[in-house]
Design goal:
The chain has helices spanning 11-38, 45-74, 83-96, 98-106, 111-116, 122-145, 147-161, 164-192, 198-230, 233-248, 253-282, 284-299, 301-308, 312-340, 346-365, 368-386, 389-401. It has 407 residues and is mostly helical. The protein is globular and about 60 Å long.
């Protein structure tokens, strides 16, 4: 409901809405994983997972290709942006979420979830939610209060290291860490003061973490978490700027919808099935390494697309290779994450893993536009591919340190 072209002073409000959208979607993903795991026995988990993945991909087609088709239908064009067309498009997209809302209101709470875990009182849960709100508020306040300080330091740091982009990135990273530290201190103080149930914190959050570190040890656990945090860095950082790249090359929204959003997602589904079959036959770690290698190689194809420019045939080729490798890598990665979880803490541990796997890549992806402006598309795609090279080393190290044969 905000047009930044005529109301630039509301960009902060738009940014806050985007942050809340990201928070909501991440929370939804975690709760769906928990529901999927708790609502059926182990013999049905493969079917539940397949249904979830299929629904997720259909949703991506609707929200991706569907949104582009609707925007074009309502009158927006690459050469003539229409705010009203995009507003109407996303109002329609919002209405599609009513399917999930109605479903949530109709279905029952999983019985396994209630029987297998200690149920805390409503008052305990309310106190914990209030603690979360206060901690997040501290994070936001700390982040905003350091804005002017960072702006002043950026000038001096830029002249010192010779790059305003690198200086800005370094300062923003430190602002994030400082804000996280403030939120952590608030949470620790509240727990020590007894403002939340300590047993609730221990059972729900500390026990799953201590179990993971207890099973693998500190050294191997850090190695595993590093691999989880870096595995998807190459494709996510590139994917953030991809739509802008296609439009800059002259592809229309309908072409992007047809090739990238529809055909590309079908190729991702095909790659997922291929990754699942190969993982079952050759082992997860080998296909995990193959997926990381293919991601590095196929991302280089975008350099060729940037060199060629507008060419629909080449775009089909690039999207086919990129999405097949992404689907294959994702299937192996999900199997890898599942093998790390303890059945007693599946929901919480899987939620931690799935959050960690996108934290750093999406943070760096937020600077993809800045990187493109600084170095151009070709060099950016080269850097995005090279980001995946350390992942190959991490996969090899994990394979040497951990045996997954019994998991």
């Amino acid at each position: 409901m905000i047009d930044p072209a005529v109301a630039p002073e509301k960009l902060t409000l738009m940014a806050l809405a985007a942050v809340f959208l990201g928070f909501s979607s991440a929370t939804q993903d975690i709760v769906i994983d928990a529901y999927r795991i708790d609502s059926a026995g182990s013999e049905l988990q493969a079917m539940m997972s397949s249904s979830y993945i299929a629904g997720y991909r259909v949703g991506m087609i609707v929200a991706g290709a569907g949104a582009l088709f609707l925007a074009s239908y309502f009158g927006t064009k690459s050469e003539a942006y229409s705010y009203l067309a995009w507003r109407s498009t996303y109002l329609v997209m919002a209405l599609t979420m009513l399917i999930g809302v109605v479903t949530t209101l109709v279905i029952d709470e999983p019985k396994q979830n209630l029987s297998s875990q200690r149920v805390f009182s409503a008052f305990d849960n309310i106190r914990f939610v209030l603690l979360f709100i206060v901690a997040v508020t501290g994070f936001v306040i700390a982040f905003f209060l350091t804005k002017d300080i960072a702006a002043g330091l950026r000038v001096d740091l830029s002249s010192l290291i010779g790059s305003s982009y690198l200086a800005g990135f370094f300062l923003e990273v430190n602002r994030i860490f400082l804000a996280v530290g403030v939120a952590f201190v608030i949470a620790r103080v509240a727990i020590r003061l007894g403002l939340v149930d300590r047993e609730m914190v221990r059972v729900c959050y500390l026990a799953p973490l201590s179990d993971f570190f207890g099973r693998y040890g500190l050294k191997v656990s850090i190695l595993l978490l590093t691999l989880i945090g870096f595995y998807r860095i190459s494709d996510i950082v590139l994917g953030v700027i991809s739509n802008v790249f296609y439009q800059d090359l002259g592809f229309s929204k309908n072409e992007i919808a047809g090739v990238v959003k529809t055909f590309g997602l079908l190729m991702t589904i095909a790659g997922g099935f291929l990754g699942g079959l190969l993982s079952a036959h050759y082992g997860v770690m080998r296909i995990l390494f193959l997926g990381a290698l293919l991601t590095v190689l196929t991302n280089l194809l975008f350099m060729y697309q940037a060199h060629v420019g507008y060419d629909l045939t080449i775009l089909y080729l690039v999207i086919s290779a990129d999405n097949l490798s992404a689907g294959l890598a994702s299937a192996a990665f999900v199997a890898f994450l599942s093998s790390l979880t303890n059945v007693s803490f599946t929901a919480v541990q899987y939620a931690i893993f799935s959050s960690l796997m996108t934290l750093l890549p999406k943070f760096l992806g937020g600077y993809s536009g800045t990187m493109v402006e600084a170095m151009g598309y070709s060099n950016f795609f080269l850097v995005a591919s090279l980001m995946g090279v350390p992942v190959l080393i991490l996969v090899w190290l994990v394979d040497q340190q951990v045996s997954f044969s019994d998991q």
